[in-house]
Amino acid sequence: MMTDTMQVWSSFQTSPEVPKTSMSSLELDGYLTGIIVTPQAAPILPSKWIAALWGESEPVFEDKAQIEVVLGAVMTRYNGLLRDIDRALERMEADRIVEYRPLFLEGDEKPRHDAVRSWARGLWKAMELAPQAWQVLLEDQRTKIIFEPFVGFFEIGMLEPHEYPDDIDERLDEDAALIPRMILILRKLARIREAAGHPGAAVRAQRTKIGRNDPCPCGSGKKYKRCCALA
């Protein structure tokens, strides 16, 4: 079920003064998730990511009160996602249970591929705000495997239907099921980068550093050196 804050955003999207390039609710959820898990020392500032919410144009607000309501809802959603992702990461590290559920997941049913694709578009837009940080992740043999479940949802929009692999639905189902876990791993990496970039956070860095003999943060139960470190 869509949260109240997302309902505010969805309602605002129906206004004729809102650019058609602005994000849908699913895109917004993916976008804010991407902002939170971007693996770099300094977080992306709201002054930068809020400006990208509307695409190439800006909406015409009715008054200051509407600005406060809409942007307040976005910030509330951002803070809620940050809290939920961090709590889910702690649960995964403690119990190897992934309880985090992005907006494209409803109940226990498999998500619609078009819903995941909309969410992934938002994630991609967040990545475009910090391309260097993501490039480092993709070029590192130890971490690029984390990104693989997202790739199919990025690429499928660039293919013609006759170019789809015969097992495309099965592949996308598997990828969608892995995305919640990978979000948490990305958040862990972001926290490691943040701690490394701030000398005063040395204790936090020690707490979040992944050792080769530690359990893999993906929750597989294997040691890191025999799991994601092999990628």
What does the model show?
With 231 residues, the protein is mainly alpha-helical. The chain is 57% helix and 0% strand. It has nine helices and no strands. The chain has helices at residues 4-13, 25-37, 46-49, 64-95, 113-127, 131-139, 144-155, 168-196, 202-208. α2 (25-37) packs across α5, α4 (64-95) crosses α8 and α8 (168-196) runs antiparallel to α9 (202-208). The chain is globular. The chain starts with a helix and ends in a 23-residue tail after the last helix. 31% of the residues are buried. Mean pLDDT is 81; it is low at 201-209.
Helix content: 55-70%
Shape: globular
Sketch the major β-sheet.
Answer: none
Please trace the helix and strand order, writing H or E for each element: HHHHHHHHH
Please work out how many helical segments DSSP would assign. Answer: 9
Measured distance between first and last alpha carbons? 36 Å
Write the SSE topology.
Blueprint: H1 4-13, H2 25-37, H3 46-49, H4 64-95, H5 113-127, H6 131-139, H7 144-155, H8 168-196, H9 202-208
Top keywords for this entry?
9 helices; mainly alpha; 231 residues
In short:
The protein is mainly α.
